Hints:
Oligomer: single chain
Distance between the termini: 39 Å
Strand content: 5-15%
Number of strands: 2
Number of domains: 2
Amino acid sequence: MRAALPVTGRRGRPEPHPFRERTNYSSEEERSLALEGIAHLPDRTGYLWLKARSAEAIKIETPTLALPEGQEFRRIVDALRAEPNLGKRIPRSEYESQILNRDREWLELAEGSSELGEVFEKKYQEERAAWQA
């Protein structure tokens, strides 16, 4: 993240003597200060770095969310929990059916352990054919 922090090269160094010429931090010093400053950013403020699009991170601030409270919050959460499509969840009965099928397949493999190498070779060839297609 250090290399992505934006620097201007024009950040002034604090000068305790008012009559001396003001100097600027070097790029590396400015980057170090920005990195240390990340820990002290205000709430909902941070850096967004889209590596594929830019060499530098962008300082952003997210909006405050208006969350409901009390019974209204509970009603909304219960509605989300009841929705099976959220999070690609499946009904319990279908999940248990998948577990039974998986266990049946594994038990068949364990019974025919002398052919285990053949089973793996067949599975490997199927996967290889799928990748080449």
